[in-house]
Write a structure and sequence with these properties.
Elements (H helix, E strand, L loop, with lengths): L2 H27 L15 H13 L14 H14 L1
């Protein structure tokens, strides 16, 4: 083997031996401090109005079986946005 191949092989062996041990040990050595759980974002007044209107209008756009009519969800959402604006 030439000088380049010897150097490559040595570097390759060293990289393999350090990769698994040092990274894993470093992660285990430093435990993270627990922070307070994130609070959910509160719904705005407009979002609440939209939700109420959507629920009120949904039966108009649904079949008797409970499924949506053709383009029913899309049309219901549009109608709810329009109603929420008023």
């Amino acid at each position: 083997m030439g000088a380049w191949e010897d150097g490559f092989a040595a570097g390759y062996r060293e990289g393999i031996s350090h990769t698994h041990t040092s990274v894993g040990a470093a992660r285990r050595a430093a435990p993270k401090a627990r922070s307070a759980p994130k609070r959910k974002r509160a719904a705005s007044a407009a979002q609440k109005r939209y939700g109420r209107e959507f629920k009120r209008l949904a039966p108009k756009y649904k079949k008797k079986s409970g499924g949506w009519k053709k383009d029913g969800f899309k049309r219901c959402a549009a109608a709810a946005r329009k109603a929420a604006k008023r």
